[in-house]
Every structure is written in C-alpha cells, then in structure tokens.
Amino acid sequence: MDVILLQLLNGLDKGGAYALIALGLTLIFGTLGVVNFAHGALFMLGAFCAVSFNALLGLEVVTVDETQTTAWGTPLEVRTPYVEAYLGDFGAWILNYSVPVSILIAIPVMLLVGFVMERGLIKHFYKRAHADQILVTFGLAIVLQEIIKSIYGANPIPQAAPVAVRGAADIGALFGFDPGVIVYPYWRMVYLAFAGVMIAGVFAFLQFTTFGMVVRAGMADRDTVGLLGINIERRFTIVFAIAAVVAGLAGVMYTPILPPDYHMGMDFLVLSFVVVVVGGMGSLSGAVLAGFLLGILQSFASMNEVKAIFPGIDQIIIYLVAVIVLLVRPRGLMGRKGVMEN
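The line above is the sequence of LIV-I protein H; the predicted structure tokens follow.
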C-alpha cells in the first residue's frame, strides 16, 4: 500500500506537467485548428526564464575587507550578490525565492513570445493542412532549441527550490504508516498545487468571463461568431498568448524538479501531444484527465517489480495506451464526435 501511494504521488506531479502543456496545446488546436509542435519549446523557454532570472540575481559585487586577510596576507575579497548588497534582507529573500518570483518575469515574456509567434508565423497556416502546420512548428521548435543551446550550453542547469521547501514531508505518517516509509519532496507538492491552480484558473477564465464565452463559442462555430461582428481573430491571438503563458509557467515551476536543458521541450512535447490525442483533440477536460492518468500509469510502470516482468514498459506505456485508446475510440476519451475519426 505504501508503494502504491508513493507511485500515485509521483504520477500526479508528472501528470500535472503533462496536463498543463496539453491544456495549452488543446486551447490552440480547439480555437485556431493549428497543431502546434513548437508548444514544448514554450515550456522550455519558460524554464530558461527562471534560469536567466536566477543568473541575473547571482551577479556579484566585489568588496575588499581590510580587516581580514587571505593565506597570502592580502586583503580578503568579499563577493555579495548585487540584489543582496543593495536590498539587504529583501534582496536575500528574492534570491532564495528566485524560481517562484521569476513567474513575474515569465508572464510578460511568454505573452510577447506567444503574440509574436502567432502573428508572425502561425496565422499564415490557419487554412493549411495539418501536415504543413506540424512541419513549420516543428522546425520552429528546433530553431528555438538551438538558440537556447548556443546561449546556455548543452548541459542541464540546476535550479534550487526555496530553502523552506527543499526537504521532504513524511506523507506516510498522515496515513498511519511507519515514520519514514513514505516521504515526498515539498516542492513536488508545491508543483502539484500550482498545476491545480493553473488548470482551475484556465477553466474559470473560459467558463465565467465574457471573453472566455466568446472563445468557447468560436471553438464551436467560428464562422457564426465572426458574422456577429466579433473580432474573433484578435481573441484567438490572445488565446494563443495565454496558452504560451500556461506552458511557460509550467516550465518555470518545474525547474527545481528537472534541471533545464535545451531539449527538455522536445521531450515533454512528444509525451504531451500523445496526452492530447488520448484525451481527445480539442477537449480541454480530456487533456487534463489524460495528463494525470498517463502520468500515474507511467509512474507505476517505472516500478522495479513491474519492469522485472515487462522490461522497458515504462518507456512505452504511454504510447501503448494511446494505441489502445485510438483503436477503440479514435476521437479520444473525451474528444468531439467527428474529430480524428475519419
């Protein structure tokens, strides 16, 4: 029972990342009809917003302490981050919480990236075949990936979680297990809660705001909404930018769990696209459900007991489920009738 609970928790935080990326993918497909293979790159760009912000905060001012000397008898050089030197305790707090604080930087950056991407490239492929959309967005993803590689290098760049949440919680004790049997990192719980808030926020935005209602109407019947005199194109551009922000913030908060590198976006994109297909192209609820479901299944498939019986099952379980779902229900678990069924 303790192993099952631990794997369930591991699957939930991984599923949260899948769900957030898949949610953005589904928003774009449902509104614009575009299959965006560059969406994983947006996840990566968000992660490197956190890396850049942390590097900026880490810039140091060098002072000389005449009262102390080195082993060679020279005055001791003291290196202090600029933000701490000029802002004192508040600067130290910002440095400690650089990952969550970098959300404030990532939001305008990802909004701008999403706007430029949609206006500069995606809009020209609205009426093109999905194959053309996949090729051009996949090419864009490779370009962004290589740009990041040229700037930050090929090696992963670890990002520290705030000191207050670097440990692990004894989850098992809450359920009556022996102490120390089930421990779970605090930051993974933070990420799971963050994913839940983001998902709830997107659904609330679409469900309870006038803007969201128009977008949902446009997803159902774009031509009719246009005939009502509503500038649906402008709203869809904003939706694309919002989807970029969702992916970017998912990347920001995932950095303490997985050190960012230049190909992390591609790694998550393939899995998240499978999540979208399993959940149902165009179905927001399906994307979230499939994200958590496949994250949990992948977590259980990674257990040593399971891999001893089915070697390598953890690498193919998501694709295996996708094949089964598409054979039985081509439109996905919660997809609209007629989508991907021809």
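Note on the example: Strands lie at 60-69, 75-81, 168-170, 183-185. The mean pLDDT is 84.
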